Amino acid sequence: MIVKVCGMRLASNIREAETSGADWMGFIFYERSPRFVGTLPEYLPQHLQRVGVFVNSDYSYIINKVCQFRLDYVQLHGQESPELCRSLHQAGAGVIKAFALREPDDLKQTALYAPYCDWFLFDTPSDAYGGSGKRFDWKLLDSYEGPLPFLLSGGLSPESIESLSRFRNPWWQGIDLNSGFELHPGEKDIPRLKTFINLFKTLDL
């Protein structure tokens, strides 16, 4: 299972989080987010996959950040088109498309994006495009049948271990951690993060 820690900003916190057991680290390039990364941190992870999170950004802005931060993936969290996903994929970027799920029919749109993405991420609906601290109804994913693996996001916290241990879907391949592990927006509680990841990676999933 992949563990992604998102919303990182501070060089010292990034360095510490790199030792937490996470596999991917996310940086948010959405200016309205309190976790927005406006400048290049003095330290970036050397051993984790780097993910840039964007909300309705244009192609040139995304590509600029891919080059500046040496991103492995771009995560698109807004109303981006399949065509933009295709262009980014053709440029060599890994593409993660996020979908906020309210009802089962919301999953139908994934079919349009699947040819141009590597992963999907399913999250809780929020005007702030993520970081809501709230969990959506995971039963909505009972009807998801692929063809891409997905990350589970939205409201995950140290108290989520039991519910995650019971969750099953053959296409589920990871989790996305953010606000539930923060001291402040953009600053993670490293001991809590490490404890949770260690527990999660021992689950029989």
Please report the distance between the alpha carbons of the first and last residues: 8 Å
Profile the largest sheet.
Answer: 8 strands, parallel, barrel
Write out the CATH superfamily name. Aldolase class I
Number of domains: 1
Radius of gyration: 16 Å
Average pLDDT, all residues: 95
Which sequence of SSEs, written as H and E, runs from N to C?
A: EHEEHEHEHEEHEEEH
Q: What is the second-level CATH architecture?
A: Alpha-Beta Barrel
| Number of E-type strands | 10
Approximately how much helix is present in the residues? 10-25%
Strand order of the largest sheet: 1-2-3-4-5-6-7-8
Shape: globular
Q: Assign the CATH topology.
A: TIM Barrel
Poorly predicted regions? none
Helical/strand content category = alpha/beta
Strand content: 15-25%
CATH class: Alpha Beta
Per DSSP, the total helix count is 6
GO molecular function: phosphoribosylanthranilate isomerase activity
EC number: 5.3.1.24
Protein name: N-(5'-phosphoribosyl)anthranilate isomerase
GO biological process, one term: L-tryptophan biosynthetic process
